[in-house]
User: What shape does this take?
Amino acid sequence: MQDSIILNAYAKINLYLDVTGNRSDGYHCIKSVMQSISLYDTVTVSKNNSDNIRITCSDKNIPCDEANTAFKAAQAFFRETKDYFGVDIDIVKRIPSQAGLGGGSSDGAAVLTALNQISHTGFSIQELCEIGAKAGADIPFCIMGGTALCEGIGEILTPLRPLPDCYIVIAKGTAGISTKEAYNKIDLLTNKDNSDMPILSIYNNSDIAEICSVCYNIFEMVSDVSEINTIKEIMYRYGALVSCMSGSGSAVFGIFTDNAYALKCTEYLKASNYFSKLCRPINCKQL
Assistant: This one.
């Protein structure tokens, strides 16, 4: 029996993100195209003899208690199975926090995937997604990965054709953005642009240039982080087809078709003291 599993927890970007409404439970309804990328945390999940969920993390700024999404994911799993046991969760962080890259959600997804294997529960991807939605809205996508249209609070997933071959540069400055505060600002907007984008047709039938032409993020309307526009200008200067903020921010992605220019852009951003990483799209995983 395997009592310890190591998994890559892949970050995500939002190629398209609109907020389409509010719910009575405080959540917001969204319409988003999410894409897994090759930037990842490493999550090790191991059984222990303490009967407790214990978390360690390489980033000392990340909470290692009940506030951690990985902790919430483990709790949700055990509530579902009624088979409680102690577990150690070690997270090596590479995905920046407060960036809109789904770092916490990807860690939670990895924990659920690992516990499913350790416990031999045999949950399907759909069943794991249903459990994950109880711990975080982006966890279902991070479990499935690849390219998907995400609706509801993010838990209604429609797989899309894999993103055409490209290079994705990720960059982030020193400022972080609270997801809660970002949604509060969205609620104050009076001129929301809730466009009826034919996403399924575009993403399943278009080339990378057309897909880039419809990238959109409503949170850019309420962001006051100056670094975001600076990073976008740099990416366009190096030939990005599009540059857009991911999630509620503050990370920015740029999509390139030329590896050399993408690499030069990444190196320039690093030299300018930004976090920067050259990534590739990741396709849907199979359990």
Remarks:
- The first strand starts at residue 4 and ends at 22.
- The chain has two domains: 4-159, 167-212+219-279.
- The chain has a mean pLDDT of 92.
- The CA atoms of residues 112 and 128 lie 7 Å apart.
